[in-house]
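FAQ: What does a ligand-bound record look like?

Like this one, built around iron/sulfur cluster:
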Amino acid sequence: MNLTLHVWRQKNAQSEGRFVTYQAKNIIPDMSFLEMLDVVNQELIMKGEEPIAFEHDCREGICGSCGMVINGYPHGGHRGTTACQLHMRHFKDGDTITIEPWRARAFPVMKDLIVDRSAFDRIIQAGGFISANTGVAQDANAILVPKQNADAAMDAAACIGCGACVAACPNASAMLFTAAKIAHLGLLPQGQPERYTRVVRMVEQMDKEGFGGCTNIGECAAACPKVIPLDVIARMNRDLLVAKIKGVG
Ligand code: SF4
Ligand code: FES
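The answer part, i.e. the structure of the complex:
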C-alpha cells in the first residue's frame, strides 16, 4: 500500500508545531501502525532528516506509551486497540492519514507525537497505593474476596495509563483513568484502610493538574483500549461523597 501521511511535527514544548506531509510507500497490510511509522522514519534517516518522534515500548498493548490521535480518534478508534496493535489492514491503498499527539492542557507536547503524561504519575503518587502488609504469596488466599469484586477490580486494573480517555474527552477530563485506579484498589479488602483518603487526594491532584470535569459524554470509555467501563466514575463519585460526609480530607 502507498499512503499519504499528515503528521504533527513540533521541535519541542516551546516551539510551534505544524503538519508535514509524508509518503509511506510499500506498506504491508500486516504491519502495525508503528511499524509503518518505522518505515517512514527509516527513509527520513536515510535522507538525513529528523525522524518522527513517537513513544512506544511493549508494542503489545500493555505499556500504554504509544498514544497518538489517528484520523481524529485516539489510537485510531478501533475498539479495544492501542496504536501499536492497530494493523495497516484497516487502511486502504491511497488513503490519507492524519496523525497528531494527544491534545490536552495537562499533557503538554514534548516533541512531535510525544506528550508529557507525568500528570498521571502524580495522580497515582497522591493515593494510588495501599499500606497493608500483603505478606507472602500463600497469604493471599487468607483474605477471601467475593468473586464479583475480584473480577471488577481486575477489570479496572487493566487500565494501562495511556491517556486516550483524556484525549477523547472534549473537557480533557482524566476521570476514567483516576476512577479506574481508585476502583482497582477500593474494591479489594487490602485497599480499605486508605479508601476515602485515597479518593480525596487523587481527585484533588487530578484537579490540580488541570484536567477538566466530567459532563457524562462517555467519549473516554468509547476510546479506551482496555474497555474500562464508565461505572468506575460513578463509584469514584460515590466514594468521594462518602468521604466528604465522613469529613475526610
Ligand atoms: S482508562 Fe483507558 S483510555 Fe484511560 S488511561 Fe486507562 S486504559 Fe487508557
Ligand atoms: S507500545 Fe505499549 S501499549 Fe503500545
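Follow-up question: can I read anything off the structure? Yes, for example: The CA atoms of residues 156 and 180 lie 5 Å apart.
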